[in-house]
Amino acid sequence: MRVYHFINSKFGIQDIKMRRIKVALLNDLNDPFEFFSTDLSDIHTRYSFTRMKAEFSRSIGLICFSHSCQNPVQWSHYADKHQGLCLGFEIPDEKLGKVDYSIERLVVATEDLLAFSHLDYGALTKFLFTKYSHWHYENEFRQIVNLDEMYLEDDKYFAKFSKDLKLVQVIVGAKSKLTRADLDDALGNLRQDVKVFKARLAFKTFRVVRNKNPQEWA
C-alpha cells in the first residue's frame, strides 16, 4: 500500500539521508485521547487504562501515515505550513492498520481489564486505532512496532528503511525552499528508485497537487 508521512524540511532531509523514520511514542502523540478511546467514566476502568498506557508506552511505538498526500490541512499541520516534505512509502498491507473515527467512546467489559497485560493483539489495536471523528481528515494508517527492534538515538526511536518500509516518493511542499540538488544529495543512491516532485495548490479544488511546470522548481 502507498502511504504518506508528513514532516518538516530539516528532519525530512535528515531521515532521507539516514534512511530512517521516527517512531512516535504513545505518550508523545498530539491527541490526549490516544489509547483512551474507551468510556472511562468508571474509576476502575480509568485506572486500568492509565496503567495500560504507561506499560505499553515502554514497549511499543507507532509509525503514522496518511492514505493521501493531497490534504492541505495535513501539509499545514505536519509539514511546516507547506514548507516541508511528504514522504511516500510502499508498505505491505498486513503491516498497517486503518484508524477508525468515532463520535462515541468504546465500551469495554470490566472483566476484560482484570489482567491487562494479557490483552490480545486485537483488543490492543482496537484502542490504538480508534480516534475521535474530527481527526478523520488525516485518513490515517498506523504501524505498531516493537521498540526493542528499533534503534535509539538521542532518546528517540527510529525505524530503518527496508523492503517493508520502502521510500518511493518525495513530495516537496509548495512553499519549500529545498532545491532539486538538496534532494539529490539526500537521496544519494536512492535517486533512481524514488520519484521526486514539487507540489502546488490546485486551481479548482482545495487539494495539493503536483506542479508539472519544471521552471517553477530549480
Summarize the helices and strands and which ones pair or pack.
Blueprint (H helix, E strand, L loop, with lengths): L1 E6 L1 H10 L1 E3 L1 E2 L17 H14 L3 E7 L5 H7 L6 E6 L6 E2 L1 E3 L18 H8 L1 E3 L7 E7 L4 E3 L2 E5 L5 E7 L7 H8 L7 E7 L6 E3 L8
Parallel strand pairs: 7-8, 12-13
Antiparallel strand pairs: 1-5, 2-11, 3-4, 4-9, 5-12, 6-9, 10-11, 13-14
Helix pairs in contact: 1-5
Give the radius of gyration.
Answer: 19 Å
Task: Compute the number of structural domains.
Answer: 1
Distance between the first and last residues' Cα: 31 Å
Number of helices: 5
* DSSP strand count: 14
The residue-averaged pLDDT reads 92
Class per helix and strand makeup: alpha+beta
Strand content: 25-35%
- Name the strands of the widest sheet in spatial order: 1-5-12-13-14
Spatial shape: globular
Low-confidence stretches: none
Order of helices and strands: EHEEHEHEEEHEEEEEHEE
Sketch the major β-sheet.
Answer: 5 strands, mixed
Helix content: 10-25%
